[in-house]
Specification:
2 copies of one chain form a homodimer. Chain A is an alpha/beta fold. The first copy, chain A, is built from 17 helices and 19 strands. The first copy, chain A, folds into 2 domains: about 1-245, Nitrilase/N-carbamoyl-D-aminoacid amidohydrolase, CATH 3.60.110; about 260-460, HUPs (Rossmann fold, 3-Layer(aba) Sandwich), CATH 3.40.50. Chain A is elongated and about 85 Å long.
Chain lengths: ~525, ~525
């Protein structure tokens, strides 16, 4: 006998239970009528989207989510729906998956392994289940698992021991560079060991700082991937099983890392704008590489008619910066404004003359310029209802090479988790599709242009040294001594990590941005501001 | 026989292991030589301070903390030290308490109940211990417990069943209004049930958003508090036990709620400034009640010579606001500057004239004023190396009645968790000690003074209605229907909670502030920005 299982890789909105239920029902009907599926599997916590964070602590929210399951069960028949929801237990909540068929619940599984590291806080909300759940459908014994369950050894084997012939996994597995390879490698190995075919359905879409990349897949009992859905796109697919053997189907290609990262950033911008109801975005274009990349990403995410840019030159802005900014705007077909900042800078200089009398110029004066730009951009954002994008990269965020309320002002920071060298790589990648960033922008030395002939390398180690130090310190938690032992210069290591430590206060006030590395700032790396630890 | 146990209620700096070890050794020597104590008990995770957050994920940090225990054991003899530290297990970390005596470890206990709710993330870092730990000292059997252990039933009984005659508890229990009563009530009841005397040592001091209030105490077997240390102060005390019965000693009085809250705020400012090495603070003084209160708190925390204020009047600032601001500065003896904002506002108006042509005035123009003030204050903060305090209260933070990068600009937000009605109560309380805030400031209608004759009540429900709605929604997680059923007007409830939901993005970029309610924004209430949930 054959079984057809549909994988519903869908982009849900966190918290919008009624819209999510509607989307689930539509997808199930499509899977039943168009794909002739017997079962349709949705991602983890389908009903609420993932992660719903502290909404999960609200009784009204949980009640609505549980009620939605009953509504859904009656809404769609003649196909089994495997749906995730926060199940109300006795005084506790479970991260559960329920099988709905012909108006009744065939089975309900409670997630056993609750991740509480990195960006995950599941032990804040959920109580762990304690047993596997295997149900019979059309004569096949099917086990249910949820995300982290299949990353740890033991759960897949327990399903096998309980008679499962096939495993379904509901997931909300966020993207970072290389994650898709890691995910498939680990899970395929476990499947191979247990000889239990597995259907893996992942959420897709952006949710604040997280990107869920989809790339749902099916593994046969030998541990071979026989089907893979697209990354970063919604897709409802069906796989036919001969008894419990999945028949080989289309495998979407795995993108190369740079292409994946680019697409993750595009999806992140698109979903933040769309899900939060903005009409478009706005950004300051400096003629530098960072804002050039953010502009290209924004246009690729939203279309050129939804993007507007502002050039805000000062006395320190070189002509080539203005020229290149105009070239970028023109190449991408976006409207640009030019507003020189001198009048505001002069006004503040005059207003502060008395209190600053006798002091010497320092970064204060540089910050005033950046903050005048912040005021202009925020005024335009307020007036037009457009989201202001900031253009700072991860290297700058790490060492605090940015002005609070200046270039850090904005609602969303697309490349906040993109190290500077990767900014260059992404710019080159984008130009390989079509040339939109002038070569001179990629080639010239990076500068904040807040003082005469300033370049980043005046204040920081060159990025070729800085970025790997930061990766080791921020992403890998290596100590200063470890990093020095790996061959980096002691003074550069100490300088870099001291700056990282000292600038936690700045990062705490930065807008959210898209996680693409193994460890982003924010919920992924929770550091105290007040800290006496000096690991140097 | 008698036993003397010292309670070392000390203000540690998170992460500063070497300084903390020095302080522990000094306190132990003082307890031994001056107080003639046999045992000295320190707070939870003494070595690292609490909470060290993701520092706990670093192998260099954990190694240093574990090494510090060995150093300490050899450093102080002839008194038993009970010290908390993050114990390195096999591939895992425990939240442990160790008993050091004559250079060796007498006992080591691993915390069994790891809180992972509210501000706590202990399951992110630690593995739970599984058994009680009772050790013999001078013929007395003493049990060890850590913080959350004694809030849950079972652990105290298990110690009793394992032969404990006396219980020591190491704590890092953060302050909120009423917490001290709740803490003593719950623990005394458990002690009474088990008939096991208990020594409770709490950390004291401010750490970013948390205040640890000290108020360490000793409970006899009948569940009576026989000793209590001061709130909000360091104190090393000794209690004599006759066999295992604690002899009655001094009980520091419990302050009334308003006095506790005031002192918590003062300590929060003081420790944030001191532990982060600022020379002083700066704030904008508007003539309104919020900045008046923050000024008084800052002066009480740091002294008037460490506080500087700036008056930044606009065309909308009433004369009485300027007059009252000057009165406040004079009453508290702080230096003030007057910098009218018109030149900068006019400059921006001119610069934006072309892009704003044909639009009507809205909050954009109000925000420009607030942001000009932000630029002035930040420039002074940068130039002088003084911490800028923001003056927004919790009611404003809840509904977003504040300007990002304007009045929200600053490094620390002392009254961010203080609802508006409590701002008034705290101002009156402060005036009851000595009159520093002009009565007119307390009596007049609150206004942002960003437009002609503007008052807060133009945009918001009056605070007498708004604050209780916010308390129910934000602190108690009540639904809109629950709040309406409690007697609040439907339209005001919907307006208030819609504003709370919509302004998560603003709060995400606000500076840290001092938690004094049962639920502050930030790590205590983790909401998605992108959320389709509308509980109305």
């Amino acid at each position: 006998m054959t079984l057809k299982i549909a994988l519903a890789q869908i982009n849900f909105v966190v918290g919008n239970i009624s819209a999510n239920v509607k989307r689930i029902a539509e997808a199930a009907i499509y899977a039943r009528d168009q794909l002739k599926a017997d079962i349709v599997v949705f991602p983890e916590l389908t009903i609420t989207g993932y992660p719903a964070e502290d909404l999960l602590l609200r009784t009204d929210f949980i009640a609505e989510a549980n009620n939605a399951i009953y509504l859904l069960a009656e809404q769609v028949t003649d196909i089994a729906l495997v749906v995730g929801f926060p199940e109300q237990g006795e005084g506790v909540i479970y991260n559960s998956a329920v099988v709905l068929y012909q108006g009744v619940t065939l089975a309900c599984y409670r997630k056993q392994v609750l991740p509480n590291y990195g960006v995950f806080d599941e032990q804040r909300y959920f109580t762990a289940g304690t047993q596997p759940c295997v149900f019979e459908f059309n004569g096949v014994f099917i086990g249910l698992t949820i995300c982290e369950d299949v990353w740890k050894s033991g759960i897949i084997e327990a399903n096998k021991n309980n008679g499962a012939e096939l495993l379904l996994t509901l997931n909300a597995s966020p993207f970072n560079a290389g994650k898709i390879h890691q995910r498939e490698a680990i899970i395929c190995q476990q499947v191979k060991n247990a000889e239990l075919p597995l259907v893996y359905v992942n959420q897709v879409g952006g949710q604040d700082e997280l990107i869920f990349d989809g790339a749902s897949f099916v593994v046969d009992a030998l541990g071979q991937v026989v089907f893979r859905a697209e990354e970063f796109k919604e897709q409802i697919s069906v796989i036919e099983f001969d008894d419990v053997n999945p028949l080989a189907s289309t495998c979407a290609p795995l993108y190369n890392p740079i292409s994946s990262e680019y697409q993750a950033l595009v999806l992140g911008i698109k979903d933040y704008v769309r899900k939060n109801g903005f009409q478009g975005v706005l950004l300051g274009l400096s003629g530098g590489i960072d804002s050039a990349l953010v502009l290209a990403l924004a246009v690729d995410a939203l279309g050129s008619d939804k993007v507007e840019v502002v050039l805000m030159p000062s006395q320190y802005t070189q002509d080539m910066s203005n020229e290149d900014a105009v070239l970028e705007a023109d190449a991408l077909g976006v409207k640009y404004h030019v507003i020189p900042i001198a009048p505001a800078v002069n006004a503040f200089t005059g207003m502060l003359a008395e209190v600053f009398e006798g002091t010497t110029k320092d970064t204060t004066e540089e910050n005033i310029q950046a903050r005048c730009r912040g005021v202009i951009l925020m005024a335009m954002s307020n007036k037009k209802g457009k989201l202001l994008l900031t253009t700072g990269n991860k290297s700058e965020m790490s060492v605090g090479y940015a002005t609070l309320y200046g270039d850090m002002a904005g609602g969303f920071a697309p490349i906040k988790d993109v190290p500077k060298l990767l900014v260059y790589a992404l710019a080159r990648y984008r130009n390989s599709l079509s040339a939109v960033i002038p070569e001179r922008v990629i080639m010239r030395l990076p500068s904040a242009e807040l003082a005469h002939n300033q370049v980043d390398a005046d204040s920081l180690p060159v990025y070729e040294n800085l970025d790997p130090i930061l990766e080791r310190y921020v992403e890998l938690d290596q100590s200063a001594e470890d990093i020095i032992a790996a061959g980096f210069k002691r003074e550069e290591v100490i300088r870099a990590i001291t700056l990282v430590d000292r600038n936690e206060y700045k990062r705490r006030q930065s807008p959210p941005g898209i996680k693409i590395t193994s460890r982003a700032f924010g919920r992924d790396r929770r550091y105290p501001i007040t800290s006496g630890y000096r690991g140097v």
